[in-house]
Design goal:
Strand order of the largest sheet: 5-2-1-6-7-9-8
Shape: rod-shaped
Strand content: 5-15%
Distance between the termini: 163 Å
Bound molecules: S-adenosylmethionine
Radius of gyration: 44 Å
Structural class: alpha/beta
Oligomer: single chain
CATH superfamily of one domain: Vaccinia Virus protein VP39
């Protein structure tokens, strides 16, 4: 046992970090926990994209702890994580299970169901490590704790995420206050808080030592845990900012392409405008010629009418002369 309780010598680089970073600060602690406790059975209630669960799985594989892992989630979201209709997204389970099955299927199972429906799949006293991270109202988290408590082994440890969140109807903090009066435990206050509670009659030595540390030493140890957590967080922020930078670069590339297309279209438009102008000039010239032909036609028509009148007059005159001639004869 290390005097300060943290080895972190074998700190791993997390292989999986999604865009949701609320748990990222606890990943080194999850690695440490698996390497120290080597639980026989680990269950997580609430996995979402898998940031916490996949960290536990990575540690199980790395430290060869021979832990059987189970993740329970409907992957339909909830009031706090979002629902399929809004932020939660439809294909979260498909993405997670593809990643998970390729790496961890030999010792880990994703159980797509409600927490209560998963209960009968576990015998009483069979779980060494339980992570409760479902809906965070007081009622929901208390229900999850009460219903899963009988499943915990005598060395059982329960983790609660979001113990320091006090906004909205988050109520883990309240349950945490109640439970720490009944069981030994400690709380890591960074990354929304992680409560670590020893609920068994025979807690792991490492947990007992951490609980029993004098306050100043315990605080120093927690700051060290937080320091490693922050390293992961800054790694995930860097990854995220790289993601946004790539997205921005893509947008700039798209804008550049569109600008180029716009210039091409403007050239084409200019060419077409010129053609239209030439055609309009020809039409105007033809209109002018048509107008003058109309004037000529009108004039010819008038001349024709005048001639007809004149012919008719001449015919009358001839007819008169013919009449006179016939009278004289
Ligand atoms: C806060 S998220 C889990 C976060 C995850 N541990 C991480 O590291 O990112 C809560 C998850 O619990 C699930 N959930 C909430 N209540 C549930 C219940 N009663 N049964 C099954 N899943 C539930 C939601 O679908 C959601 O994916």
């Amino acid at each position: 046992m290390q005097s300060d309780l943290s080895t972190f010598y074998s700190i791993l680089e997390p292989e999986f970090l999604s865009d949701i970073n609320s748990w990222h600060g606890h990943i080194p602690f999850a690695f440490e926990l698996i390497s120290q406790l080597k639980p026989k059975r680990f269950v997580e209630l609430g996995t979402h994209k898998g940031d916490s669960y996949l960290a536990f799985c990575q540690a199980v594989a790395h430290f060869q702890s021979e832990t059987k892992c189970f993740s329970v989630d409907t992957w339909e979201g909830d009031e706090h994580a979002g629902t399929a209709e809004d932020l939660y997204g439809e294909n979260i389970y498909e993405v997670l299970s593809a990643y998970h099955d390729e790496r961890y299927q030999s010792f880990s199972t994703l159980m797509r169901m409600k927490f209560d429906e998963a209960l009968p799949h576990f015998e009483d006293g069979s779980i060494d490590l339980l992570h409760i991270d479902g809906l965070h109202t007081y009622e929901a988290v208390k229900h999850d704790f009460d219903t899963w408590l009988p499943k915990m082994s005598d060395r059982g440890v329960v983790l609660f995420h979001d113990t320091v969140v006090r906004y909205g109807n988050f109520g883990v903090w309240k349950l945490w206050e109640e439970l720490t009066n009944q069981y030994p435990g400690f709380e890591l206050t960074h990354s929304y808080g992680l409560g670590v509670l020893a609920v068994g009659t025979n807690p792991p030595e490492w947990i007992s030592q951490a609980c029993a540390l004098p306050p100043v030493q315990q605080e120093a140890w927690k700051r060290k845990v937080e320091f490693y957590g922050n390293a992961i967080l800054s790694h995930s922020f860097k990854k995220q900012s790289q993601y946004f930078q790539d997205l921005l670069d893509q947008c700039y590339g798209q804008i550049h392409k569109l600008e180029h297309e716009l210039v091409e279209l403007q050239d084409k438009l200019e060419e077409k405008s010129k053609k239209i102008m030439v055609a309009q000039m020809m039409i105007a010239r033809k209109d002018k010629r048509l107008l003058s032909l109309n004037v000529q036609l009108e004039h010819a028509g008038k001349l024709f009418t005048d001639t007809q009148v004149h012919v008719r007059d001449q015919e009358c005159h001839i007819s008169d002369l013919t009449d006179q001639l016939s009278i004289q004869n």
